[in-house]
Amino acid sequence: MDQSSNDELERRKFFRLDMEKELIDISWTNATGQTQQKKIACLDFSRGGLRLDCDQAIPINTQVTVIFKAASDKNQTLSGKVLRCVKQKSGWFEVALILDDAN
Predict the structure, then answer these.
(1) Which residues, given as ranges, of the chain have pLDDT below 70?
(2) Number of domains making up the chain
(3) Rounded to 5 degrees, what angle do the CA atoms 8, 9, 13 make?
(4) How would you classify residue 29: left for phi > 0, otherwise alpha for psi between -120 and 50, otherwise beta?
(5) What's the pLDDT score for residue 17?
(6) Are 50 and 80 in contact (CB under 8 A)?
(7) pTM of the predicted model, to two decimals?
(8) pLDDT score for 94
């Protein structure tokens, strides 16, 4: 194992669950004060945060609400902020959220 993969393993605090691109609902307030809502793919999830695949950039430090299974009466709502937003070769953005209650 090279040093870069070793460093990557050590920086993770929590177990990560591959979400297999499960669709989730997100919402946030943009710079002009308008609420934005999207149904996007969740790439993976851990107790510390989520990694999302989005068709638009979301600015770093933006507060985001995430709803799993929004149509169900057993939905789960979490909140977090954007930690990283990186444009991919596909033109989409990989968005990393850190959950508000992650310790």
Answers:
(1) 1-20, 102-103
(2) 1
(3) 105
(4) beta
(5) 46
(6) yes
(7) 0.76
(8) 96
| Residues 26 and 42 sit within 8 Å (Cβ to Cβ) | no
Q: Which residues lie closer than 8 Å to 41 by C-beta, 6 or more apart?
A: 19, 21, 22, 23, 24, 52, 53
Range of the domain at 95: 3-99
Do the strands 49-54 and 35-46 form a parallel or antiparallel pair, or are they unpaired? antiparallel
Give phi and psi for 37, each to the nearest 5. -135, 140
At residue 68, the pLDDT reads 84
Helix and strand counts by DSSP (H, E) for the chain: 1, 6
Q: Are 48 and 14 in contact (CB under 8 A)?
A: yes
The CATH number linked to 65 is 2.40.10.220
What pLDDT score was predicted for residue 75?
A: 80
